[in-house]
RNA sequence: GCUUCGAUAGCUCAGCCUGGUAGAGCGUUACCUUGGUAAGGUAAAGGUCGCGGGUUCGGAUCCCGCUCGAAGCUCCA
């Protein structure tokens, strides 16, 4: 912020016309002030509330020295070439006005073209320039964010029989991972300092890696990783479509001055990627909410249409987390987020929909190979909501059939009255939220979303925000952590069969058997079983070993015996999960695999079918 | 953002303390090998030791600054 302060005999100004869309709504009247310190102010990028207080402190010092008691705050863009977005500038100017200790504090209208006359006193201290920068550890934390840290929470554990026990009185001996979550969230105590195991695995399996040429937290996905990610994306989308969500696609960037965005944007200004485009400041979405709300705003809805559900899988949502907070696939700056909003006519409809989505989320995680023993449920809600709807929480804990963590707030601070999350607990003691749903009582009004009720009166819907799986990258993180959990227990790590980049690896014993191997592989691929062939000039033992290192569930070694028997004969199949070599026909193997992956999306191999044709991606 | 640690071959890392010809394993390439269920053999290619400065006859190595990365902290709408 730059402040040009002038000690004046008098200042007179008249707003003549609105200059920008965000201009204040005021009646344009001429104002004349005598014996005043006129502070011409340009609010710059990165300025925040701390700048407002610092500026007022400095202005106070000047006022005292001059013996002046009248202050005029005059927004003046021409002092800087690096201005803050209009809405933020207005917020800060308003904050300065409110913080002023002078009873006669004037502020000229923001966003208006003004004519003005000024008479500056002729003494040495009459003119000065101050430059104020934001301080503190995170320069542009908003008011909302700092207020958030002051929220008072009450923590409980609720058991399936409905008992609520204050956290400090609960005995965790039988629920160690819930204790991890509880400590993690309430005491803000974190786990060990081991490197997260999934990072090494994501590299070794050629799934994903850091991209040094991008910003931190923006990953590259190799063919194997892209295949896995794409299958998960398709599966989640399919599940939400079957549940009744209708898929839309919305822009990834929004105008930070758009009236509906202001509140969202200002809440976390330091956490956005922003882009300048022809003088407008755009920010990259950090969720799918705006896009869907802006669509719903333009719908003509009746109560008969509700509940109505919109869905988008955002690739990507962006959150510019602090650099030190990023961690492998667990915490990113660009991530893929399925987000399904249900517009509900009233609270009872919202509550019954919440229940459906809780089960949807549970099923989705289960089908992806993330079971209930790997995650813990947290429910956060306001005291009022709890008192009026105790059975809602009770119902959730019964469905989960394990104790859950409850965080209760005296008053509503966020836009929701209730939120639940499934928190994955990893092997190094970290909790990471996957699925979530919220009951939002604010944004229907805020985004002007309306439906007409049975009395022909417009109403704002209650909105549920559900991500049935959480970020797709996090699902992969959880699958890799599951695998590393198995490793620690001395078991063989695996992916769910439908997600394996290669489901069957064929290893020909001898060059003569390559034609048969090729015939076999192409038959299986046509039958939707991802099959490849390792015909490299390597020893049999080495090729089997490498297939095992890739976690390939089935390895078929074909020699002259199999080639002679043809497609009808029995094959010698190494079953990784069963831990033995089985003799089975091709038809039986295909039908076993097809049975196991039934209902899941399928894609063909995303690599050359012959290993000799593949570049080495990772060691 | 703060603290700590790190940056040497495509990858994983040794060498640095104690300055003097740039190392290993894996991978890649070629040849040999034709092997029946977790590593067959031989050889070759491959490096501006992150960038800049300083000390020194001489710096991957010691000193200073910078850049980038990771972990932890704070944080996670």
Give a verbal description of the structure.
- The chain is α+β, with helices and mostly antiparallel strands and 619 residues long.
- The chain has three domains: 2-140, D-tyrosyl-tRNA(Tyr) deacylase (D-tyrosyl-trna(Tyr) Deacylase, Chain: A); 153-248 and 288-480, 2-Layer Sandwich (BirA Bifunctional Protein, domain 2); 497-613, 3-Layer(aba) Sandwich (Rossmann fold).
- It is built from 17 helices and 29 strands.
- The strands form six sheets. Strands 8-7-19-18-20-21-24-17-16-11 form a ten-stranded mixed beta sheet. Strands 1, 2, 3, 4, 5 and 6 form a six-stranded mixed beta sheet that branches.
- The longest helix is centred in the middle third of the chain and has 21 residues, at 223-243.
- The protein starts with a strand and ends in a 23-residue tail after the last helix.
- The model is unreliable at 136-143 (pLDDT under 50).
Topology, please?
Elements: E1 2-18, E2 31-42, H1 49-66, E3 70-75, H2 86-99, E4 104-107, E5 112-120, E6 127-131, H3 143-148, E7 153-158, E8 164-166, H4 176-187, H5 197-204, E9 208-210, E10 219-221, H6 223-243, E11 246-247, E12 253-255, H7 262-267, E13 274-277, E14 280-284, H8 289-297, E15 301-302, E16 308-318, E17 334-344, H9 347-367, E18 375-382, H10 383-388, H11 390-400, E19 404-409, E20 416-425, E21 431-440, H12 443-446, E22 451-452, E23 458-459, E24 462-466, H13 472-488, E25 504-508, H14 514-526, E26 531-533, H15 540-549, E27 554-558, H16 560-565, E28 570-575, E29 580-585, H17 586-596
Parallel strand pairs: 2-3, 3-4, 11-16, 15-22, 18-19, 25-26, 25-27
Antiparallel strand pairs: 1-2, 1-5, 1-6, 7-8, 7-19, 9-10, 12-14, 13-14, 16-17, 17-24, 18-20, 20-21, 21-24, 22-23, 27-28, 28-29
Helix pairs in contact: 1-2, 5-13, 6-13, 9-11
This protein binds one RNA strand of 77 nucleotides through α3, α15 and β27.
């Amino acid at each position: 912020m730059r402040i040009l302060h002038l000690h004046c005999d008098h200042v007179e100004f008249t707003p003549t016309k609105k200059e920008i869309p965000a201009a204040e709504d005021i009646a344009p009247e001429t104002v004349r002030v005598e014996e005043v310190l006129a502070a011409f102010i340009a609010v710059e990028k990165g300025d925040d509330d701390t700048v407002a207080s610092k500026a007022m402190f400095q202005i106070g010092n000047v006022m005292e020295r001059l013996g002046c008691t009248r202050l005029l705050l005059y927004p003046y863009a021409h002092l800087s070439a690096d201005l803050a977005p209009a809405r933020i500038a207005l917020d800060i100017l308003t904050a300065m006005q409110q913080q002023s200790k002078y009873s006669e504090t004037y502020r000229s209208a923001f966003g208006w073209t003004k004519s003005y006359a000024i008479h500056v006193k002729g003494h040495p201290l009459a003119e000065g320039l101050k430059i104020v920068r934001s301080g503190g550890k995170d320069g542009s934390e908003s008011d909302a964010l700092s207020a958030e840290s002051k929220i008072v929470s009450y923590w409980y554990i609720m058991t399936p029989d409905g008992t609520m026990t204050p956290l400090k009185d609960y005995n965790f001996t039988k629920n160690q991972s819930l204790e991890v979550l509880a400590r993690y969230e309430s005491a803000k105590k974190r786990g060990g300092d081991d490197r997260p195991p999934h990072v090494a695995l994501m590299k070794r399996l050629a799934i994903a890696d850091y991209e040094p040429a991008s910003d931190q937290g923006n990953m590259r996905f190799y063919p194997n990783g892209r295949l896995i990610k794409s299958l998960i994306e398709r599966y989640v989308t399919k599940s939400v479509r079957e549940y009744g969500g209708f898929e839309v696609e919305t822009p990834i960037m929004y105008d930070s001055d758009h009236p509906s965005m202001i509140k969202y944007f200002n809440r976390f200004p330091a956490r956005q990627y922003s882009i300048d485009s022809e003088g407008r400041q755009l920010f990259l979405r950090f969720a799918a909410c705006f896009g869907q709300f802006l669509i719903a705003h333009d719908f003509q809805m009746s109560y008969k249409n509700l509940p109505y559900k919109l869905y988008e899988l955002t690739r990507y949502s962006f959150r510019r987390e602090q650099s030190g907070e990023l961690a492998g696939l667990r915490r990113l700056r660009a991530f893929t987020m399925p987000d399904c909003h249900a517009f509900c006519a009233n609270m009872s409809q919202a509550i019954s929909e919440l229940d459906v989505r809780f089960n949807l989320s549970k099923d989705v995680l289960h089908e992806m190979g993330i079971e209930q023993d790997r995650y813990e449920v947290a429910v956060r809600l306001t005291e009022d909501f709890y008192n009026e709807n105790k059975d809602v929480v009770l119902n959730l804990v019964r469905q989960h059939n394990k104790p859950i963590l409850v965080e209760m707030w005296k008053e509503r601070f966020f836009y929701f009255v209730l939120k639940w999350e499934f928190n994955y607990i990893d092997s190094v003691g970290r909790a990471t939220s996957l699925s979530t749903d919220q009951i939002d009582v604010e944004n229907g009004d805020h985004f002007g979303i309306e439906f007409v009720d049975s009395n022909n009166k417009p109403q704002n819907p209650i909105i549920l925000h559900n991500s049935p799986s959480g970020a797709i990258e996090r699902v992969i993180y959880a699958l890799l952590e599951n695998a590393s959990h198995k490793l620690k227990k001395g078991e063989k790590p695996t992916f769910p069969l439908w997600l394996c980049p290669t489901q069957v690896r064929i290893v020909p014993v001898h060059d003569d058997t390559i034609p048969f191997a090729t015939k076999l592989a192409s038959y299986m691929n046509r039958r939707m079983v991802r099959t490849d062939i390792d015909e490299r000039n390597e020893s049999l033992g080495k090729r089997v070993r490498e297939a095992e290192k890739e976690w390939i569930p089935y390895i078929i070694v074909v020699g002259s015996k199999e080639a002679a028997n043809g497609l009808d004969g029995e094959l010698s199949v190494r079953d990784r999960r069963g831990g033995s070599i089985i003799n089975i026909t091709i038809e039986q193997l295909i039908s076993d695999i097809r049975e196991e992956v039934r209902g899941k999306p399928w894609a063909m191999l995303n690599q050359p079918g012959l290993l000799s044709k593949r570049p080495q991606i990772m060691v």
